[in-house]
Amino acid sequence: MSNWISINDKTPKHGDVILVANSIGGQAVCIFLETKEMNKIFKKHGITSFEDEKKVPYHFSSQEVKGAELNNVQYWMPLPESPK
Question: pTM for the complete prediction?
Answer without folding.
Answer: 0.77
